[in-house]
Specification:
Length: 505
């Protein structure tokens, strides 16, 4: 058995378990290795035989000293020739050709053979990577490489790479079924798994590890269970930190507000006279517009900062781009103090004028409306005083604008979508860039949040009591949002990948 097992204190045993990535040349092994390792290793290029020698990297390491080693190997070139060399490599002439002649006469061909000997000697499980975009029956090298995998004598998991953007489970299963039918005669292929280097989600790695463990001998099970638990704790920590960052961002937006300076009586009069003169209605409230712009600017900065945090937490690199916030008409909740000047006008016209009209009627209409005019003036002073008293009672002397409850719910949905985009982005793809979200993601997120709408709204229900953003208030709302957002994200991941529920046990 190739697994190295060492005795530890207390009777436990540490193990080094080796998994090799094999494929035809230029299919994406190194790209997949970068995604799994979350670091840049090897060289990635759109040309054959980029990787010349097998390279080992520690994928997971436990506190007890166990290690899961990932081997990135040279790709198969001329698979038929490689198979023939391997089959005759134990004979003297075949050994000379394979180990001496080919090394100098055809180095890529020699590298392919060395990779196979290395995999045969040390690997516990083989991960054979194929291009899912290709028709498996259209390429002659597939059968030759299947027989090479049989020569290795190790259990094999076939990984479907280059699947494209994340798709619904039914589409992926159709690809799986097609490849299963193609490799049915080769019994050493244990299973077919969709696993795209560009768009796999971290929870799918848990599924892969579960299948690798199933193929290991009994003496490796305890060590691999420790490795899987280490992987789980590491990734759940990233998950928790991601949700904490998003909850903090939403809480900051919920508590954020911008004061609206009151317009002077002279300014209100100019705006009213302009509307009377036929300018098409009241002029836009410039101060309100300015407050909304300030609020939107801060939110955009918070979103980009949080996205950058997610990118770093997931072992990616790249800068978050600016998010354009579209004006939808209902995103702002505007809370202004009662307008004493406007109250004086309308109060005079309504309450005072009605009193004056009563006086006119009592006089039999002989005052010709003077009673209504005088009553309006007196009523204006009364209404203005009532508005001022109302504002004093509320402690409100200036207005505020903040994000509406519906808008905040939309931002939670957007935050979870942003998390999914980062969680699916493989490092092998390069610098992080956000793209369009699949429709089935949006549906899963909306359903999950819909079940928690009341609880989410209750989380920021007390924010109207706070007139300025404060750290304690933000922290309190974030603490209420965190378990709700974690539960929603967990539900979405399990909805998209039902087989990963064990990760969140």
């Amino acid at each position: 058995m190739s697994t190295a097992v060492e005795a530890l204190a207390g009777g436990a045993a540490a193990a080094r378990i080796n998994v090799s990535l094999l494929s035809h040349t230029n299919v994406g092994k190194t790209t997949l290795a970068r995604t799994l390792l979350r670091q840049d290793i090897g060289e990635v290029s759109d040309r054959p035989h980029v990787t010349e020698v097998a390279e080992s990297h520690v994928l997971i390491e436990s506190a007890q000293g166990d290690a899961l080693i990932l081997w990135d190997t040279p790709g198969f070139g001329d698979s038929t020739r490689v198979l023939q060399r391997l089959q005759h490599s134990e004979k003297p002439v075949g050994w000379f050709l394979s180990h001496v002649w080919d090394r100098f006469a055809d180095r890529p061909f020699w590298c392919s053979q060395q990779a196979m000997h290395n995999a045969r000697e040390i690997s516990d499980v083989i991960l054979y990577v194929v291009n899912a975009g290709e028709d498996p029956s259209a390429f002659g090298y597939i059968e030759a490489e299947m027989r090479i995998l049989g020569w290795l004598g190790k259990p094999v998991i076939l990984l479907l790479n280059q699947l494209g953007p994340p798709r619904e489970a039914a589409q992926s299963q159709a690809d799986v079924a097609e490849w299963q039918a193609q490799i049915a005669p080769f019994k050493w292929i244990e299973m077919v798994l969709p696993f795209d280097a560009f768009a796999r989600c971290w929870v799918q790695e848990g599924t892969l590890l579960a299948h690798v463990q199933r193929l290991l001998p009994a003496e490796c099970q305890s060590a691999f269970e420790r490795l899987r638990d280490c992987w789980r704790q590491r990734n759940l920590s990233v998950f928790h930190e991601s949700m904490r960052a998003l909850a903090g961002q939403i809480a900051a937006a919920a508590i954020d507000c911008e004061p609206i300076e009151d317009v002077t009586l002279q300014g209100k009069a100019r705006a009213w006279l302009g509307s009377v003169a036929g300018s098409g209605g009241e002029r836009t409230d410039a101060k309100l517009e300015r407050a909304q712009t300030e609020l939107a600017g801060r939110l955009d900065s918070q979103i980009r900062g949080t996205t950058q945090t997610l990118v770093q937490l997931h072992g990616l690199y790249g800068k978050a781009t600016e998010e354009v916030l579209k004006r939808m008409g209902s995103e702002f909740a505007i809370d202004r103090p009662a307008d004493a000047d406007k109250a004086s006008v309308w109060g005079g016209l309504l309450s005072g004028a009605l009193g004056g009209l009563a006086a006119d009627l009592h006089a039999g209409g002989l005052t010709f409306g003077a009673g209504a005019l005088i009553g309006g003036v007196l009523g204006a002073f009364g209404a203005r005083g009532m508005a001022k008293a109302y504002n004093l009672a509320r402690g409100a002397h200036t207005g505020t604008v903040r994000w509406s409850s519906d808008f905040l719910l939309g931002r939670i949905a957007a935050a979870l979508m942003r998390y999914l985009a980062v969680a699916h982005f493989g490092r092998g793809r390069g610098e992080f860039v956000s793209g369009s979200a699949p429709a089935h993601w949006q549906e899963a997120v909306q359903q999950s949040l819909g079940r928690r709408r009341a609880a989410l709204e209750a989380a920021w229900a007390t924010r109207n009591e706070v007139t300025t953003a404060s750290q304690p208030a933000t922290a309190a709302i974030a603490a209420s949002l965190l378990p709700l957002m974690m539960a929603s994200a967990r539900d979405v991941l399990v909805e998209l990948y039902p087989e990963v529920s064990h990760v969140f046990r």
